[in-house]
Amino acid sequence: MEFTITVQFPVPASEIYDFWLNGDQHAAMTGAPATGTAEIGAEFTAWDGYIWGKNIDLVPNERIVQSWRTSEFLEEDEDSLLEVHLKSLEKGCELTITHSRIPDNQPDYKQGWEDHYFTPMKDCFVK
Q: Is the pLDDT assigned to residue 126 strictly greater than 90?
């Protein structure tokens, strides 16, 4: 299973990039406990340990690639892949996520991204 979502925020791409990868800022962005650093190979958690993974590739202020799984994945399930692309716009940035390799037995993560990421991010970044 795979899907792509694109949203825009009125802040620079660098701000989204920093908030996404820094545990304390990620927690402020989503409203839930998180850990992480902006280093390739660094592990992260989000939503109080419900989500975890590892940074696979980072291009500052442009691209984040992470392995990604939740506590709902079966032990034998392969990690899914999350790609975050940031594009600078005249008044902010465009964020596009592609979430792929999601096991068939999983819930609707597309709606989860909308409800648990993009809605709180709009509250955080749209002032």
A: no
